[in-house]
Amino acid sequence: MAVSMQVDIVSAEGSLFSGKADMVFAQAADGEVGILPKHTQLLTQLKPGQVRVVSGDEEDSFFINSGVLEVQPSVVTILADTAIRAEDLDQAAAEEAKRRAEDAMEQAKSDTDIARAQIELAEAVAQIQTITKLRDRLHKTGLS
Questions:
Q1: Per-residue pLDDT reduced to its tens digit, 102-127
Q2: What pLDDT is attached to residue 142?
Q3: What is the pLDDT of residues 77-102, one digit of tens each?
Q4: I need a surface site. Which of 10, 31, 32, 49 has the fewest CB within 10 A?
Q5: Strands (E), the chain
Q6: What range does the domain containing 78 cover?
Q7: Same domain, 15 and 75
Q8: Do 78 and 105 meet the contact criterion of CB atoms below 8 Å apart?
Q9: How far apart are CA 31 and CA 62, in angstroms?
Q10: How many C-alpha atoms does 15 have within 13 Å on its Cβ side?
Q11: How is 92-121 classified by DSSP, letter by letter?
């Protein structure tokens, strides 16, 4: 029998995913991490980006704006501020959010305004990247 792990993705809105998986990929603060069953314990902050949950030939993709990844030997838990299934992301809205954040950065008058605009820009860019990666994966598998 194949070894798998329990994966739970939870946001303030509720549980988005709960199930068994063979591998999880997430955007940690220091770069992408790949988690396999029996991984050493880990607690790390997540930055805006894609989370992929792989089980056999199936792959579920999510966007999170920030959160925490906790890894136990047989359980991976992602606690996200906001989590959205990648297929539910709206590219036009993400592009508009990116444009607004860029405008806000140009018009920022304080360090706080700049920091807020940078966060908004990072989230919008991460959403666009998640959409692009999902589209590319679907195209490669002939599902687009």
A1: 999 899 889 998 898 998 898 888 88
A2: 67
A3: 999 999 999 888 888 998 999 999 99
A4: 31
A5: 5-11, 14-21, 23-28, 31-35, 42-46, 49-55, 58-64, 67-72, 75-80, 83-85
A6: 5-86
A7: yes
A8: no
A9: 17
A10: 6
A11: HHHHHHHHHHHHHHHH--SHHHHHHHHHHH
